[in-house]
Amino acid sequence: MGSWRFEFERASLLQDVSQRSFVGGFPNLPKEEPIPSCKLCSSTLSFFFQVAFPAGHVWHGKSLAVFACTSCVDEGSLIPEMLDQKLLGADIPDGFLERYQTNFRFVVFASETGTLRNEYQPRVAFRRLNLAPLKASSKAVSKIGGRPVWMLDDESPATYAGRHRVEFLLQIGEKAEFPTVKGAPPQIELDLTRKPTPSPRSFYQLFLGNQIYFFGVNGLPLVYVVTQI
Known about the structure:
Number of helices: 1
Helix content: under 10%
Order of helices and strands: EEEEEEHEEEEEEEEEEEE
Shape: globular
Number of domains: 1
């Protein structure tokens, strides 16, 4: 399987409608796919980025769009729920990947079915996301395909529901910043007293800015995430 490094261009006010891998702006989703909302506070989720997997990737022909809530914060949902078992080689229980998407949502679809959804109000500034081929030995920490580069121990799962193989899709390096557009509401975070407070930063963070590893279920539109710090 091939491997590609993320190359982020500078933020732009103009979104290239032909772009299929990008950060922020308007999501490119199937027209029948609703813009997701938070199960905790019912607010529209913020669109962070999406990737159209290239030829040579195990998910070639599919796209993944990532949404997360920036309007509320819950101490038990700062990162995606972890499995209550040894993570390396784990079998993810049937139904877990649908249930754990509370204040975030992973939308998986055939890339060719995506269309620009301009009814969504952008919060994260649009940036092109270009993919540059990597050598198999590369230690890049923001990449698509290849093998995960773990900060700590290997926590790769093996299967879903006892029968579906789980594949590594991509990873995002720690402290990744997603600059916001002018007028975007601040991200709500916990202050030192654990009180929900608007962030003073001009960017959003995904899952506390931890290193994020995405795994996909073979044959199903389901994604499992592990974070490390």
